[in-house]
Amino acid sequence: MSEDPVTAVILAAGEGRRLQPLTNRRPKPMIPVANRPLLEHVVEAVAAAGIERIVLVVGYRQERIRNHFGDGDDWGVTIEYVEQSTQLGTGHAVLHAESAIDDDFLVLNGDRIVDPSLVSRVCDRVRDGAAPAMAVTTVEHPREYGVVTSDGDGRVTHIEEKPEGPVDTNRINAGVYGFSPGIFAAIRETHVTGELTLTATLNEIATDRGVTAVSYDGRWLDVSNLWDLLTVNAGLIDEGDGSQRGDPPLGDSVSTAADVALAGNIRVGANVTIGGSTAIGSNATIEANAVVENAVIFPDAVIGAGAVVRDAVVAGNARIGPNTTIAGGAAEMIVGDAVHRDIELSGVVGDNASIGGGATLTEGAVVGDGVQADAGVVIDGRITADAVVRRG
Amino acid sequence: MSEDPVTAVILAAGEGRRLQPLTNRRPKPMIPVANRPLLEHVVEAVAAAGIERIVLVVGYRQERIRNHFGDGDDWGVTIEYVEQSTQLGTGHAVLHAESAIDDDFLVLNGDRIVDPSLVSRVCDRVRDGAAPAMAVTTVEHPREYGVVTSDGDGRVTHIEEKPEGPVDTNRINAGVYGFSPGIFAAIRETHVTGELTLTATLNEIATDRGVTAVSYDGRWLDVSNLWDLLTVNAGLIDEGDGSQRGDPPLGDSVSTAADVALAGNIRVGANVTIGGSTAIGSNATIEANAVVENAVIFPDAVIGAGAVVRDAVVAGNARIGPNTTIAGGAAEMIVGDAVHRDIELSGVVGDNASIGGGATLTEGAVVGDGVQADAGVVIDGRITADAVVRRG
Amino acid sequence: MSEDPVTAVILAAGEGRRLQPLTNRRPKPMIPVANRPLLEHVVEAVAAAGIERIVLVVGYRQERIRNHFGDGDDWGVTIEYVEQSTQLGTGHAVLHAESAIDDDFLVLNGDRIVDPSLVSRVCDRVRDGAAPAMAVTTVEHPREYGVVTSDGDGRVTHIEEKPEGPVDTNRINAGVYGFSPGIFAAIRETHVTGELTLTATLNEIATDRGVTAVSYDGRWLDVSNLWDLLTVNAGLIDEGDGSQRGDPPLGDSVSTAADVALAGNIRVGANVTIGGSTAIGSNATIEANAVVENAVIFPDAVIGAGAVVRDAVVAGNARIGPNTTIAGGAAEMIVGDAVHRDIELSGVVGDNASIGGGATLTEGAVVGDGVQADAGVVIDGRITADAVVRRG
Predict the structure, then answer these.
(1) In the predicted structure, residue A1 carries a pLDDT above the cut 50
(2) Contact B99, B118 (CB under 8 A)
(3) Chain A residues with CB inside 8 Å of B252's CB?
């Protein structure tokens, strides 16, 4: 059992294609929810658990991460960076951290938010010599994750990634691991075709001698698809301690719900209504008489006068014209080959997109970054980046 | 002269085709104005006049009436029901009440609102042996009603239904009658082709021995066409004693005019403006920054954020999308073969219809019940029930 | 040197075609900014400079000027009118005033706003025998005006109207002149082809013996194009002493910026937001939840509920429908043969035009007077007077 400080390796190199267009200009871990990047929520949980050293595995659009976190000083931790230039799996990512590790360590996903208590518990188990350990949580739809089979002694015996058939458990891999340095050799020796995943390595170890399961039923927030942003944002705001809420100057007769996250330097015009579960990022502008509710508004975005933006994500520096409506009902969205129905997502507007006044986004519309849409248009479905949408 | 209690027979069996689509799911007497069905205003006037027993002649969609009024206890009267399964005229309707009547009685239309004082006065005349008696009032456009000719002794000598030529009086049949039981035989013996109307019977009696005219210049509110709902609603609210107005929770900075009727359990978002002559029914929702004025909003309707609904009727459980506009100017409406011009009615939205966000209803639009209209559409004219209105 | 009172001749006969459609029903000097006609601002400056007698040279739509100013009593001056029935140049206009002048006099343009101090200074120079004198100011884009060359002794040596090539000065003719009666003969003797301009006469005098330059760097507000109305309006409001602001009744939760000019008898509904640099003329109506900002709203105009009107001019008695949007971005506008880019003018709506609800004007749209546009339309470019704009 080691008493030395434990290092946390956080995997933040991936692109997150399912979250396009939001990931065209930033890696998925840098998507803001409740006004802070997903990764910042992870870093904070790690820091709150008493971890003092973090190794960030970065790759895609890594400059966004390096610029934001620097040396970690603002979070009371030391952050070092290792670069994974091509993303060939979580195991492959962990291998890139090898040179920075000489003792037991933790691994976390940079886009899944957990409580500090889970980090502490996995940490303690590793210090007690129980590595490899992995957190196991329960979810409603386990088949979208790594479904975990365990024996009666709290040991994982198998992990099956996104099983196609029915499953008899809703316990899944929570994406928080505790390893000894021996894991690096195990990863290298894993027999795989295709991506070198941690799951493959852990399955070999589980078959051989077992993997310690750390059961967890606390906060576990995962952003797999665009619409998850709204629920994760709402969840984080809901449990917020108020620190997320700045004290921006508000116009006359502005109404704000209790459960909002407002950056301190936003501008909010008169007669604006900001409903619940809304985050409004730094330097954003909400013009007079607009209505924003259950929405994630990124920094520098402008919501025009009289616009209604609900159940929506508006990315950085995007402009929504006056009296424009983003407020559909239940949407049907296609991601890759899969059709998702009854999605509560009115629309997503990419970075730097500009939508004219009096326009309407129909339910589930996704507007690419840099799109220029005329006043008065009705936007359906997915608009590719930098397209120009004309009337008629 | 009888001192026995007098029974009121209220005719409420008709469908009211001219008020489609509002009468597709309820009989005309159950259309709400100032948050109560037309018939309830009639029942209240009758009860306030001291009548203790009401016979409701019901037919079309009668379950709506029976469920609402039950045994009349809530109104301090005894209500009995007789069924007129096919509607063959007002005389025919009165005949259905024969088995429930054994003394002098009153007859009223279930969709015309009068003062209790008129009910009392007709009642008194009947007790004085003056049956048959009928109330006579004056209107601006008498040719739409039964025009009354009378002699110098206050006796009706002739009633002409909707005369085509010019008339030299604006006195009309107000639709409140006092009869002795002998009227039943007179109705049965009336010579008619087509509908068996009370007017036909009364004309035969008037020629023979005359009908007592009870002159009346009080409140007389008739809903013949959709647009009459707005004026009748406004009139009832205007004279309201405040009892029509609940005390619903209102959002921040909500502005409500003095002359509104709000059910106590509605939801009203922030920065909403509720203008005058507006009734908002039970469990309706007015979302943030919407404007509603001179409108009849039925129970369970939802008016979306930023929508403007003016000079309009929105029926039960209908949904008006955010930033949608129902606020035209003077309309031209076609009802049957007649063209009505300069009608102040922006639009009517039927029960359970759903109109997407950013849509526009042009002046005089009538949206059938159950219609589904896309976001961003412009709706003109009449949309048949359950139609799907797509863009483009 | 004369001590006699000096008369000011103000040129107000022109039509102002570049400001169509606003000049279809009024001469350019009668276009209101900050709730008063341009010409009234000029008359006030002249009166404030101590001038007691004004001769207005009128022509196009002169009844609008005569009705507004009458005998000048309301401004503390005596106003006389001379008619220039055809407009053949500024010199030609001045000649029409000859019969009313028998001493030194000033000439001003009726649509350029200057400080009283400039009027006083030109007046003083003329009394000192320095006629002819002309005010010279500096502007950012001198090539749009009469560019002035002067010698070291403060004398104008040449004026070049709208030079095509580059210029080495930004000093221009400010349009305020001081003359002795001898100017009339000089004008008549000027050798010109085409219009008889004051510039041509002054150039001949300048070559001969020089013209006194009166340098000026105070307020100089010129309305050459439609978009200048917004900047001149904003400038006048910004420097206003509060006298421009009436105290109209405002609805609940109305927000008004500090720098607005509101006529005292306007109607403003609840939850309206009136942003900065906005003038709202007599008897105009701003309905509930509308947003008006950086706009010139002429008398009797109606801005519908929920409409957004920004960077726009709405002329007399025009009606903007509910939820209609006039709030584009930078526009490209064509005036005559010239294309102007990056113009901050969302739209201009002519007198008596009526635009339905839920409509959108795109950036730079110009709607002619008397146009009738349907609800839900999108309006681009220029719509000719009295056109009917239908959907689809």
Answers:
(1) no
(2) no
(3) 253, 255, 273
Half-sphere exposure of A159 (CA within 13 A, CB side): 29
Distance CA A328, CA A362 (A): 6
Q: How far is A174 from chain B (nearest CA, A)?
A: 39
Confidence at residue A331, expressed as pLDDT on a 0 to 100 scale: 77
Contact at 8 Å (CB) between C345 and C230? yes
Predicted pLDDT of residue C244: 60
Answer yes or no: do B327 and C357 touch at CB < 8 A.
Answer: yes
Mean per-residue pLDDT, C263-281: 96
B1 band by pLDDT with thresholds 50, 70 and 90 = very low
Instruction: Tell me the ipTM for this assembly.
Output: 0.91
Burial (0-12, 13-18, 19+ Cβ within 10 Å), C242: exposed
Q: Are B17 and B89 in contact (CB under 8 A)?
A: no
Contact B388, B354 (CB under 8 A): no
Q: How confident is the model at residue C245 (pLDDT cuts 50, 70, 90)?
A: low
**Residues B118 and B134: beta-carbon distance below 8 Å:** no
Q: How many angstroms away from the CA of B326 is the closest CA of chain C?
A: 8
Quote the minimal CA–CA distance from B307 to chain A in Å: 10
Counting one residue from chain B and one from chain C, the pairs whose CB atoms sit within 8 A come to: 93
Distance CA A214, CA A15 (A): 28
Contact C280, C286 (CB under 8 A): yes
Chain B: list its partners (3+ Cβ pairs within 8 Å).
A, C
HSE-up (13 A, CA, CB side) for residue C216: 30
Query: Cβ of B271 and A275 within 8 Å?
Result: no
> Which among A343, A352, A303 is positioned nearest to A325, based on CA atoms?
A303
CA distances from B94 to B13, B178, B223, C61 (A): 11, 12, 21, 71
Shortest CA distance from B253: residue in chain A:
A253
Q: 């917004």: which residue's tokens?
A: C230
Distances from the Cα of A338 to the Cαs of A18, A332, B164, in angstroms? Answer: 11, 10, 66
CA diameter of chain A: 71
Distance in angstroms (rounded) separating the CA atoms of residues C198 and C97: 14
Minimum CA–CA partner of A323 in chain C: C325
Which of C289, C320, C355, C390 is the best substitution to test chain B (most B C-beta atoms within 10 A)? C289
Find the mean pLDDT for residues A114-137: 94
Residues 6+ apart with CB under 8 A from A270: A251, A252, A253, A254, A288, A289, C255, C273
Residue C302 confidence (pLDDT) above 70: yes
The CA distance from A136 to A115, in Å, is 13
Region A187-207 average pLDDT: 92
Dihedral Cα B5, B8, B9, B15, nearest 10 deg: -160
pLDDT of residue C332: 81
Q: Do C269 and B271 touch (CB under 8 A)?
A: no
B248 to chain A, any CB pair closer than 8 A? The answer is: no
Over residues B68-109, the pLDDT tens digits come to 999 999 999 999 999 999 989 999 999 999 999 999 999 999
Residue A243 to chain B, least CA–CA distance (Å): 24
Residues 6+ apart with CB under 8 A from A342: A330, A331, A332
CB pairs under 8 A between A and C: 91
Is the CB of residue C358 less than 8 Å away from at least one CB of chain B? yes
Q: Do B323 and A310 touch (CB under 8 A)?
A: no
Nearest to B238 by CA among B384, B380, B34: B34
Q: Which residues of A248-261 are buried (b: 16+ CB within 10 A; e: fewer)?
A: bebbbbbbbbebbb
Contact A133, A211 (CB under 8 A): yes
Check CB contact of B310 with chain C, cutoff 8 Å: yes
pLDDT over 70 percentage in chain B: 97
Residue C4: pLDDT band with limits 50, 70, 90: low
